[in-house]
Structure formats: structure tokens, C-alpha cells
Design goal:
two-stranded antiparallel sheet, three-stranded antiparallel β-sheet, DUF6465, alpha+beta
Length: 107
């Protein structure tokens, strides 16, 4: 009987190159920031301005949120973890809950 010679793999270097290219493609497709989102160049993220109009008066919601956080920081040294603002234009007041601490702001 004839002896079987081991098959010579001539495509091994080509397969290794293909593996390297696939690894480079995977690295390029992965997110570049720690938050898991890809970094966008150019434009800053969209910051919408939200207003409430009631009885001919207009209230800026972003301003109310900032005022609620500032009011909380006057009495607490802990950073803001959560912030909810409830607006009642008929009472001309905004109620907030920051880190389970509630308060009231005049509009």
C-alpha cells in the first residue's frame, strides 16, 4: 500500500491574513467611547427647549429644572441623582422631587 503523506496546507498564511483583517474590522466597528456610543464629530448633542404656555404666560421648563436643582443644592451636599418637576400653572407653582426630597417653586 502506498503511504499517505500529510496534506500541506498552503492556504494557512492566507487564512491568517483573513483572520487579521476580520479582527481589524471588528475593532473598527466597536464603540469608541466608554458610554457605549460612537463619538460624533461636529455637532453637539441636541438640547431641546421646552415651554409651557397657559393663560397668556410662558414658562421655560429647562429654567425650572435648573432652579429646582439649585434649590435642592442650597440645603443638601449630595449630588443630584434623580429630578422630577411637576408644573401646575393654575397655581403658578412648580413642585419638584430631587433625590426623594420635595419642594415648591413659584413660577
Amino acid at each position: 500500500m502506498s503511504e499517505k503523506k500529510p496534506a500541506v496546507v498552503a492556504d494557512a498564511p492566507a487564512a491568517e491574513k483573513a483572520t487579521r483583517k476580520a479582527a481589524k474590522a471588528d475593532k473598527a466597528a466597536k464603540p469608541t467611547t466608554k458610554t457605549g456610543k460612537t463619538a460624533h464629530r461636529g455637532r453637539p448633542p441636541l438640547a431641546p427647549e421646552v415651554y409651557v404656555e397657559y393663560s397668556g404666560k410662558q414658562y421655560n421648563i429647562t429654567d425650572l429644572v435648573d432652579r429646582a436643582k439649585a434649590d435642592y443644592r442650597l440645603t443638601h451636599k449630595v449630588g443630584v441623582q434623580s429630578c422630577k418637576v411637576y408644573i401646575k400653572p393654575e397655581e403658578e407653582a412648580a413642585y419638584y422631587v430631587v433625590n426623594k426630597v420635595s419642594g415648591k417653586l413659584p413660577l
